Each structure stands twice: as structure tokens, then as C-alpha cells.
Recover the amino acids of this structure.
């Protein structure tokens, strides 16, 4: 990502929960594109009560819109991962403004972080948000690495956002599509993980 173009004038709105209607600023970075309000509203309607007390992972966090929305709606903990120090700094400032406490900020490439954090015997996450820069192959690489990492709980929910339709073959075979929708040029999906046969035995 390139450096910010001066003082941020961009903002996003928290849809619901304890911080409902609060507006937060985020830096003007190339490729940083917060999940739109109506898409986030649909996503969290899909998640319903699964978000409450959930441990969440916001990969390619950018503005942190999905992870912050999850905290607002009762998530137990959110880990935000992004390569940009400016993006992570803005998420930190916004969480401080909201007086949030149950989070971790990681300034690192998301794929590198997955590889370094793999814990085959200690699954950590109930819900994962994956919304990488659109002009990249990062989504396919991320889902493959994530499934192999051992970080996902057996019935984890995974949200994907893309500028193109996500081919079934691009997603691990034990991820079941639960919901999908399109908003303009944005395709978004909710998958639910099922344990691999070898894990169940």
C-alpha cells in the first residue's frame, strides 16, 4: 500500500451494537476499501447470535470495519492483521476512542502471519473475515493456508469478499457455502467449516 495522502477524511459507521452509529475515520490508502454498510448489515444478519462471545480474526483488516462491528455486537475477542502500519495505527486509535479492550493488533503480512501462527492442536477462531485487496490472488491463497493452519474451530464461519465470483474449486472442499450475495461489483459469501474426515476419526 502507498502512503496516506495527507490527513484522513474517510469515515465509516458502526451499524449496530454498543457502539451503534459511531463514526470512525480511516486513512486514505491505496486499495483500502471498507466493507460497505449494507454489506456489513447483511453479513451480521447472517451471523446472528454466532457473533456473541466469538473469537474472531480480521485478515487484511484495512479499516477494521468488520472486526470493530463484531466487537460492537458482542464478540469476545478480535485479532486484526494488516501489513500497513498506517492502517493498524488507525484501528488502534479507533479502538482507543471506543474504549475497547478485547483485541490484538498485528502489523504483518496476513499470509506470513497465518504461517507463523499455525497451531494444529489449538484451534482459536470461530469467525474469520477475509477481504483482501481486490486486484490480487490473496483470497485463494489465504483460504488454503487458513484451512491447513489448524487455527479454525471445527464449525468456524468464514466470510469472503471479492470483486469476482469465488469459484467452488478455490475454496477448501470441507467449507460449506451457507449464504452468498452480490452488491454492485462486490461478491460476498459466508462459508461454514466442517472437520476433515481425518480429524473426525
Amino acid at each position: 500500500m502507498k502512503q496516506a495522502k495527507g490527513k484522513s477524511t474517510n469515515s465509516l459507521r458502526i451499524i449496530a451494537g454498543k457502539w451503534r452509529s459511531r463514526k470512525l475515520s480511516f486513512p486514505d490508502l491505496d486499495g483500502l476499501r471498507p466493507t460497505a454498510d449494507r454489506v456489513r448489515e447483511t453479513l451480521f444478519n447472517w451471523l446472528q447470535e454466532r457473533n456473541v462471545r466469538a473469537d474472531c480474526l480480521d485478515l487484511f483488516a484495512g479499516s477494521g470495519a468488520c472486526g470493530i462491528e463484531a466487537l460492537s455486537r458482542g464478540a469476545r475477542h478480535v485479532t486484526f492483521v494488516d501489513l500497513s502500519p498506517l492502517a493498524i495505527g488507525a484501528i488502534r486509535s479507533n479502538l482507543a476512542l471506543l474504549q475497547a479492550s478485547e483485541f490484538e493488533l498485528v502489523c504483518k503480512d496476513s499470509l506470513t502471519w497465518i504461517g507463523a501462527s499455525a497451531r494444529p492442536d489449538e484451534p482459536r477462531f470461530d469467525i474469520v473475515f477475509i477481504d483482501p485487496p481486490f486486484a490480487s490472488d490473496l483470497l485463494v491463497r489465504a483460504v488454503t493456508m487458513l484451512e491447513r493452519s489448524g487455527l479454525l474451530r471445527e464449525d468456524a464461519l468464514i466470510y469472503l469478499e471479492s470483486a469476482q465470483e469465488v469459484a467452488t474449486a478455490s475454496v477448501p472442499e470441507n467449507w460449506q457455502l451457507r449464504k452468498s450475495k452480490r452488491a454492485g461489483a462486490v461478491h460476498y459469501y459466508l462459508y461454514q467449516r466442517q472437520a476433515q474426515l481425518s480429524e473426525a476419526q
Observations:
- The domain at 30-200 is CATH 3.40.50.150 (Rossmann fold).
